[in-house]
Design brief:
Helix content is 43%, strand content 11%. By secondary structure, the chain is α/β, with parallel strands linked by helices. It has a single domain (8-353), classed as TIM Barrel. Strands 3-10-9-8-7-6-5-4 form an 8-stranded parallel beta sheet. The longest helix is centred in the last third of the chain and has 32 residues, at 314-345. The two termini are 33 Å apart. Bound molecules: ligand FNR. InterPro entries: Aldolase_TIM (IPR013785), Alpha-hydoxy_acid_DH_FMN (IPR012133), FMN-dep_DH (IPR000262), FMN_HAD (IPR037396), FMN_hydac_DH_AS (IPR008259). It catalyses: 2-hydroxyoctanoate + O2 = 2-oxooctanoate + H2O2; a (2S)-2-hydroxycarboxylate + O2 = a 2-oxocarboxylate + H2O2.
Length: 354
């Protein structure tokens, strides 16, 4: 392990050097001119921490609970697809690293290791499964059954991808699934082939726009609730209006996110809208946040503004690209240490004091 890599930015810089250009761009890139992507990071700096003194922080506890399950830290791994592009061990390595540190892992529908492989690789780690709703509802229903059977504890329903964002780098690079990889949750070649077909630009855009159900509406959440007993987390909420509709729809949690700036360019940063959503939801459901969380101080700020958990999208991918499972662990350890240090320096003993 290269001792010079001491923060998440170092891992991103390293990934830039070692990954093929189209892979790095796929992981790093955002939609349009990437204003939202950039803003997700800089918006954190608008919030300042007011440290208090002399409150005995000799013992610091960074553990918490999420939907009633214990986790070692209020930092989870957000769903992201195609991990084998970063490392041959793919999502299994990411999940093993998360398990080793007691971190919640969310597996993406678009994974290159299957629901069952990941469950077997990290049987004792807390795992959630992220779903998209396909035009063919049976596809989604089958995925849910498999996730239930394999012991995943919640369904993260991503609602900000009715169509795929216009990601210029992927279009320029004609990004598509490399020939040696497949979408492990799907046996039929048809879906994988769609992702490989990039004649009009991005293969990913081709896949999503052909198969995802863009006609999804709020009432479809009732359909989802009717076919599973797992808690439902709605990921991709950015407004008070939608957060309140989510509460009304009876979901267990709201995940404030702009998909890491990869969908609609020009939205607010997720940290910027968090306070108004927290206020409106008024404790009725748990609230999580992702987008631009790169340091322990970011975690602290999001928690102070009312998030119960934050999630990391790109950082685990930079760890994977460095050294598979070990690299993901290192990235997680860095941000966990930074968060613990922030608690100490701000005179907080745990996330309850934040
Ligand atoms: C994602 N994201 C994502 N979200 C989701 O719900 N399902 C998915 O399959 C994916 N795939 C995906 C791939 C890649 C390469 C990235 C970078 C992101 C979005 C992800 O869950 C999360 O919302 C953002 O990545 C959070 O922002 P940061 O932490 O990357 O800034």
């Amino acid at each position: 392990m290269n001792i010079n890599l001491v923060c998440i930015q170092d891992f991103e810089d390293h990934a830039f050097k070692v990954l093929p250009r189209s892979a790095f761009d796929f992981f790093r890139g955002g939609a349009g001119q990437e204003t939202t992507l950039a803003y997700n990071n800089t918006a954190f700096s608008k919030f300042k921490i007011r440290p208090r003194c002399l409150k005995n922080v000799a013992q610091r506890d960074i553990s918490t609970t999420v939907l009633g399950e214990k986790v070692s830290v209020p930092i989870g791994i957000a769903p992201s697809s195609l991990h084998k592009i970063a490392h041959p061990d793919g999502e299994c390595a990411t999940a093993r690293a998360a398990q080793a540190l007691g971190v919640l892992y969310t597996l993406s529908t678009g994974a290159t290791c299957s629901i069952e492989e990941v469950a077997e690789a990290a049987p004792n780690g807390l795992k959630w499964f992220q779903i998209y709703v396909y035009k063919n509802r049976k596809i989604t229903e089958d995925l849910i059954r498999r996730a239930e059977k394999a012991g995943y504890k919640a369904l993260v329903v991503t609602v900000d991808v009715p169509v795929v964002g216009i990601r210029l780098a992927d279009i320029r690079n004609r990004f598509s699934l490399p020939p040696h990889l497949g979408l492990a949750n799907f046996e039929d070649r048809n879906s994988t082939d769609l992702m490989r077909s990039n004649k009009d630009g991005s293969g990913l855009a081709n896949y999503v726009n052909s198969l995802f159900d863009a006609s999804l509406e709020w009432r479809d959440i009732q359909w989802l609730k009717g076919i599973t007993s797992l808690p439902i987390v709605l990921k991709g909420i950015l407004t008070v209006e939608d957060a309140l509709l989510a509460v009304e729809a009876g979901v267990e949690a709201v995940w404030v996110s702009n998909h890491g700036g990869r969908q609609l360019d020009g939205t607010p940063a997720s940290i910027e809208v968090l306070p108004e959503i927290v206020k409106a939801v008024d404790g009725k459901v748990e609230i999580y946040l992702d987008g631009g969380v790169r340091e322990g101080t970011d975690v602290f700020k999001a928690l102070a503004l009312g998030a119960r958990m934050v999630f990391l999208g790109r950082p685990p991918l930079w760890g994977l690209a460095h050294s598979g499972e070990e690299g993901v662990e290192k990235v997680l350890q860095i941000i966990m240490n930074e968060f613990e240090s922030t608690l100490g320096l701000s005179d907080s003993k745990s996330d309850q004091d934040v």
